[in-house]
Amino acid sequence: MDVVIIGATGLIGSALIFKLYRQHEITAVGRDVRVVRQQFPFCKSLALQDLGLEDLAACDVVINLAGENIGQGRWREARRAKIINSRISVTQQVVTLCRKLGQEAPRVFNASAIGVYGLQETTASISPQLTEESPLPSPPTDFLSEVAIDWENVLKLLDPEKVLQLRFAVVLASNGGALPKLALPFYFGCGGKIASGQQMVSWVALKDVVAAIVFLLERPLLWGAFNIVAPECVHQYQFAAVLADVLKRPNLMWTPGFLLQLVYGQMAKELILKGQYVVPKRLLDVGFQFQYGDLARALQDIYSE
């Protein structure tokens, strides 16, 4: 299979390439072709601005994982614009090329996020489950849902049966993403509950992310939205307790929500102080089996590497 992977040097993109390159022809695409070539000398490298019609015409699947890190800095106006534009512009580039190819266009796997469903209120009880069948907020209720909905709307110009929206939860890995930041306070003995601790945390291990994408690649009749999230969702206080246990560090501190909002503004409210209970209904329905569906097992595997 010929696969074009955009966002090749990101957390998911790089892990996916290392999984696929021995069995498939991979074209790794990134903003800086020198970095891409250095990281993946064993496959074809391409600068994003050079991605053209011939590249997509020659491939079976294009996987677009490009997007600015949403957790990298306070969401000031310029930062918000960068988060949105980094997603929309690349997706529009892919859509434009695919439309020119018509029926010869490849399947498109496009990154999205569980933020598309909007945030749920934090309560002591378990929040209602969100599945791929759950209605999307109209209009969007927060910045993350606005980004994800606009992102997915770009894809509506393509044949829906050739498009998969990969709605990622918080991806857990030792070498990037949110986990190193979440774990850092525990190493200094400052880890623990954040605000009420009742906010839901939907997560997924990077190894299961890669396995799920490979699973979907191998099933050409599947299309539409898929929640890439572990079956087990936990409250933040439970996440903190499991992380502390795996790291063998204390879980004693409490961080008030107002302090995080003071420092990080709206980003704290949407990424830390509220959450979502999202489940991978469609993945489970089509027979995908999570290797790390239990948080303790996932974290133990990550920190044993």
UniProtKB/TrEMBL annotation:
Q: Which domain of life is it from?
A: Bacteria
Q: Which residues cross the membrane?
A: none
InterPro entries linked: DUF1731, Epimerase_deHydtase, NAD(P)-bd_dom_sf, SDR39U1
Pfam families per the record?
DUF1731, Epimerase
* NCBIfam families to which the protein is assigned, alphabetical: yfcH
Identify its protein family: Belongs to the NAD(P)-dependent epimerase/dehydratase family. SDR39U1 subfamily.
Q: Under which name does UniProt file this protein? A: NAD dependent epimerase/dehydratase family protein
Q: Which organism is it from?
A: Piscirickettsia salmonis
